[in-house]
Amino acid sequence: MEWEALAAKIKADFEVKNQVREEALKACRQIVRIASYAIRSIHRDERERAQELLKEAEEYLHDIKNITRDHPEIYSAGFLLDAQKEYTEAKATFSLIYGEEFPDPDSLGVEYSAFLNGVGEAVGELRRHILDIIREDKLERGDELLRSMDDIYYLLVSFDYPEAITGGLRRTTDGARAIMERTRGDLTTAIRQNKLKKAISLLEEKLVGSD
Fold first, then answer.
1. Which domain holds residue 134?
2. What's the Rg (C-alpha) of the chain?
3. If we measure between CA atoms, which residue out of 170, 127, 178, 180 comes closest to residue 150?
4. What are 124-164's pLDDT values in tens digits?
5. Last residue of a domain, one of 59, 76, 98
6. For residue 1, is it within any domain?
7. How far apart are CA 165 and CA 113, in angstroms?
């Protein structure tokens, strides 16, 4: 056996794979960064900026698919699924807060496990938005978003499959449930306080009118 020729052949293959991996990893880091900026823009109600950022992240996802086309073992690497999850979280947050059509994993071009975990992570962003809504006394809208959180939770809990398939979905589901219940408590308290304020105000008006 010609050991040197064998080693050279394998090294050449490894060099290509390593280069592809580095390019894909760099793109994934960009996606994670851009997705976080998009979510920040959503909470600041910078809708157009958020759309621009999401579009940029989408382009990076397409680049990764092209880069890894001949290397499926790299495409299925954990760091790419993490990037897809972050992108999904941003897209789901955008659609739910702005009342747009909820994204589909196939249209997003992400793996199903990454999609479900990303949607689950979006529950935390909905809580943040609901707390802002409570401060602005827009309680009806907060109740609508709470129902969306319920819908997400029941979607996630319907997948009873091994963690190796779902990408650790059970942990995400448990986290979403805890966040949802805390938010339900906060919103319920706010609604009760609002009703009490209205009742007190109405009573004061009646007392003033009777003088």
1. 111-211
2. 23
3. 180
4. 999 999 999 888 888 888 889 999 999 999 999 999 999 98
5. 98
6. no
7. 7
Is pTM beyond 0.70 here? yes
Q: Which of 77, 98, 119 is the last residue of a domain?
A: 98
**Alpha carbon distance 128, 45 (integer Å):** 13
Cα 126 to Cα 124: distance, rounded to the nearest angstrom: 5
Q: Which two tokens stand for residue 45?
A: 């109600």
**8 part of a folded domain:** no
- 121: in domain: yes
The token duo for 65 is 């698919």
As a whole number of angstroms, the distance between CA 68 and CA 70 comes to: 5
The Cα 198–Cα 47 span in angstroms is 34
Identify whether residues 56 and 127 lie together within a single domain.
Answer: no
Q: Which of 59-92 are b and which e, b meaning 16 or more Cβ less than 10 Å from the residue's Cβ?
A: ebbebbeebbeeeeebbebeebbbbbbbbbbbbb
**Interior angle at CA 58, CA 44 and CA 38, nearest 5:** 10
Residue 28 lies in a domain: yes
Q: Are residues 49 and 85 in the same domain?
A: yes
Residues 6+ apart with CB under 8 A from 73: 17
Q: Return the half-sphere exposure (C-beta side, CA atoms, 13 A cut-off) of residue 27.
A: 24
Q: Are residues 25 and 91 in the same domain?
A: yes
One domain for residues 76 and 22: yes
pLDDT per residue as tens digits for the range 16-69: 999 989 999 999 999 999 999 999 999 999 999 999 999 999 999 999 988 888
69 and 48: one domain? yes
